[in-house]
Write a structure and sequence with these properties.
mainly alpha, 103 residues, two-stranded antiparallel ribbon, single chain, 8% strand
């Protein structure tokens, strides 16, 4: 017999719930392009159509270890998002890099 997740959550301490939430956020923050696309409920064909390219090209973008910022920005926009680039420094400073923003 299965129970709804809400029932199981009620039995968990707030500390365990917070730890689980933090772990889930970490997992989502470390996704590949393909995983992000799937999370957004989009197929490669849909992304290809939005980008005006063939589906095999979407597959190539997702497999590349290195890609142009403009390509990455277009891919993220095809998923309905906006690409932001931040530099994080050891002293805690977080700087948004705006050089690549579209005018």
């Amino acid at each position: 017999m299965t129970k709804p997740l809400s029932e199981l959550r009620k039995k968990m301490s707030p500390e365990v719930q917070a730890a689980a939430r933090a772990k889930a956020v970490g997992i989502v923050a470390e996704m590949s392009l393909a995983e992000t696309r799937k999370l957004r409920g989009r197929s490669q064909a849909v992304v290809a159509q939005a980008l005006g390219i063939a589906q095999p090209n979407v597959s190539q973008i997702e497999k590349r270890p290195d890609t142009m910022v403009s390509t990455l920005a277009s891919y993220i926009e095809a998923l309905g998002g906006t690409l932001e680039i931040h530099a994080k420094f050891p002293d805690g400073q977080d700087v948004e890099i705006t050089q690549f923003n579209k005018a």
